[in-house]
Write a sequence for this structure.
C-alpha cells in the first residue's frame, strides 16, 4: 500500500472541502489516487463535483488579438519557468509579437508559424533572460457570416475567445468574462461528451439515496440530476455572472444574439508542476561540497 503524503491530503481537502481524517481515509482506500478518491466520495456521500486540480508546471501568459469587426480572433499561450519572468517587459513584448504573427498567419500550427525569425527571437530571449521560453498552443477562431468573436484576458493568465451570432462586441466580451470566471465545460448541454454523462450517471446511481428504488423512479431521479448537472456545466444554462437572475443565453438573446461557442486557455493547465523543496536542495548541495 502506498504511503499517503501530506500534500495529497491537502490537495483532496482543497478540492472537496472535507475534513483531514475523511480525506486521509479516502486516499488510503485508493492508494493515494486523488481522482478515484473524489469519485468514491461522490458516490458514498453525495459530494458535489470537486474543484479541478490547480497544480500546473508552467508560468507565462495568455495573449489575444481580435479583428476590429470581430471576424477573426487569435489566442496564444506563451510559457516561462517563473511568474517573475512572465511579468518582464521583454517577455511581454515577445508575447505581443507572437500574437501578431499568429493573427497574420491565421494558423494554429505552432511549429510552422515559429519557424525562422520568430524561433530566432525566442532563442535570443532565452539567452537574455536565462529561462526556457516556449510557445505552447494557439487557437484561431474565424467567426463566420453574421457572427463575431469576443475576447477577455484576466490577469494575463486566463484568456477566452467567444463566438456569438449577432449581439455586440460588449456582449461578446461579457460572455468571455463569464467563461473566464466560471469555467463551463461546454457551450451547450448537447455538447457534453457522452463519456462525461455516463460517468456522472454511474456516480448518481451509486449514491446512497438511490439504493432500493424501483427502476422507473430511479431512472426519473437520474434524469433529473443529469439535467441539473448539464445546467451547471453548460455556458448557456449558467446564471450570468453579472446578473444571477438570468442565464447567459437569456442575457445574449436580450441583446439580439446567440451563443455559438467558446475557447478558454489558462496558463499551464494540464501540466503537472514539479515541487521543489529548496531547503532540502541546499542541504544536499552542502553535503556534496
Amino acid at each position: 500500500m502506498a504511503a499517503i503524503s501530506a500534500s495529497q491530503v491537502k490537495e483532496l481537502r482543497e478540492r472537496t472541502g472535507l475534513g483531514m481524517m475523511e480525506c486521509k481515509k479516502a486516499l488510503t482506500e485508493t492508494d493515494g489516487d486523488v481522482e478515484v478518491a473524489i469519485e468514491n466520495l461522490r458516490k458514498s456521500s453525495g459530494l458535489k463535483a470537486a474543484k479541478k486540480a490547480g497544480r500546473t508546471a508552467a508560468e507565462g501568459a495568455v495573449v489575444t488579438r481580435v479583428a476590429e469587426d470581430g471576424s477573426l480572433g487569435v489566442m496564444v499561450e506563451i510559457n516561462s519557468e517563473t511568474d517573475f519572468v512572465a511579468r518582464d517587459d521583454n517577455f511581454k513584448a515577445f508575447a505581443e509579437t507572437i500574437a501578431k504573427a499568429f493573427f497574420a498567419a491565421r494558423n494554429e500550427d505552432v511549429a510552422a508559424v515559429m519557424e525562422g525569425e520568430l524561433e530566432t527571437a525566442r532563442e535570443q530571449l532565452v539567452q537574455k533572460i536565462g529561462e526556457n521560453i516556449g510557445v505552447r498552443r494557439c487557437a484561431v477562431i474565424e467567426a463566420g457570416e453574421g457572427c463575431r468573436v469576443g475576447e477577455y484576458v484576466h490577469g494575463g493568465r486566463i484568456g477566452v475567445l467567444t463566438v456569438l451570432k449577432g449581439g455586440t462586441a460588449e456582449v461578446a466580451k461579457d460572455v468571455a468574462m463569464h467563461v473566464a470566471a466560471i469555467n463551463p465545460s461546454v457551450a451547450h448541454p448537447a455538447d457534453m461528451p457522452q463519456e462525461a454523462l455516463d460517468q456522472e450517471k454511474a456516480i448518481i446511481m451509486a449514491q446512497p439515496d438511490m439504493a432500493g428504488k424501483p427502476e422507473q423512479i430511479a431512472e426519473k431521479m437520474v434524469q433529473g440530476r443529469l439535467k441539473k448537472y448539464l445546467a451547471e456545466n453548460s455556458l448557456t444554462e449558467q446564471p450570468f455572472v453579472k446578473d444571477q437572475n438570468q442565464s447567459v443565453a437569456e442575457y445574449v438573446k436580450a441583446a439580439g444574439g446567440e451563443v455559438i461557442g467558446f475557447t478558454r486557455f489558462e496558463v499551464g493547465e494540464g501540466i503537472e508542476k514539479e515541487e521543489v523543496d529548496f531547503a532540502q536542495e541546499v542541504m544536499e548541495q552542502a553535503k556534496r561540497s
